[in-house]
C-alpha cells in the first residue's frame, strides 16, 4: 500500500509512523486509518522492527477528525439512497485502529509533540506509552460536539487514569494540559517540544537493548489481557504455559545460560514466525441479542 497520509520510516529497529498532514494539523481521515492499520500489521511481520513510535508532522500531533470531506459523512457513515443501515455492523474508524494496536506484537510509543484533540488523543490510549510536549493541549471534546468518545476510549481510559478522572475529562469535554495528564498518569513524561521524539527514541532503545523480541511481545499481550480475567487462576494458567514455552523452546534456553556464563544472551526467536499459536486469549464473539 502506498502511504499518503503517514510516513513509514525504520531506523535502528524503531519504526516511526508520522501523521503527515501538517497543513491540516494532521487531522484524522479514513485513509489515514487504513494506512496506519496496514503499517502496524506490516510491522508485525518484520523482525527488523522492535518498537513503533507514532508522532505528528509539524507543530501538532493530531487536531482530531478531519471535518472537511468533499462527499459523504465525515465519519464514513455513507448510506446509498434507498438502502438501510445495519447498526450492528457499524465500526468507528478510530476503534478499528485501536484494535489493530491491541493485536500488535510490538510496543507502541506515542510521541505527542503538540495538540492532541478528540481522536488525536484517544488514538494514543491503546498505545503502551505516551510522552508529551510541555504545555500541549489535550481534549476529549466529544460531549461538546454532541457525540460520544470512540477509539475504545471507554475501555482504555478508566484503566489508565481511573474512573473519576476519566469521567471528569469525558463528561466535561474540557481541554486540559499535558501537565494535568502527567499528574493523572496518562502520559509518562514531559519534554520540550523539540525533545519529545528524542525521548520516545530513548525509551524505545531501552525496550530493545537487553530483551527478547518474543518475550516482549508475549509480555505485552499478558499485561493488556490478563488483568481482565475473573480469577487469578486464569492468569496463572497463561503464565505457566508461556513460561514453559519461552524457557524450553524459545529464547529462555539461552537467556539463563548467558546469565550464568556472564555473557550477553543470543536471542534468536522470531516474532513473525515463533509466536505460540495456542489461543491463550480467545477472541471475543460479537453477538446480536
Instruction: Report the β-strand fraction as a percent range.
Output: 5-15%
Termini separation (Å)?
37 Å
- Side by side, the strands of the main sheet go 1-2-3-4-6-9
CATH topology of the largest domain: 2-enoyl-CoA Hydratase, Chain A, domain 1
Secondary structure category: alpha/beta
Radius of gyration: 20 Å
What is the tally of helical segments? 11
CATH architecture of the largest domain: Alpha-Beta Complex
Q: Main beta sheet: strand number and arrangement? A: 6 strands, mixed
CATH superfamily of the largest domain: 2-enoyl-CoA Hydratase, Chain A, domain 1
Strand tally: 9
Per CATH, the class of the largest domain reads Alpha Beta
Helix proportion range: 25-40%
Order of helices and strands: EEHEHEEHEEHHEHEHHHHH
Please state the overall shape, judged from the principal axes of the Cα atoms.
globular
Low-confidence parts lasting 5 or more residues at pLDDT below 50?
A: none
The average pLDDT is: 93
For the record, the count of structural domains works out to: 2
Explain this structure to me?
This protein is an alpha/beta fold and 289 residues long. It folds into 2 domains: 203 residues, Alpha-Beta Complex (2-enoyl-CoA Hydratase, Chain A, domain 1); 64 residues, Lyase 2-enoyl-coa Hydratase, Chain  A, domain 2, CATH 1.10.12.10. The chain is built from 11 helices and 9 strands. Strands 1-2-3-4-6-9 form a 6-stranded mixed sheet, sandwiched between helices. A 3-stranded mixed sheet has the order 5-7-8. Helix 1 runs parallel beside helix 2 and helix 8 runs antiparallel to helix 9. The mean pLDDT is 93.
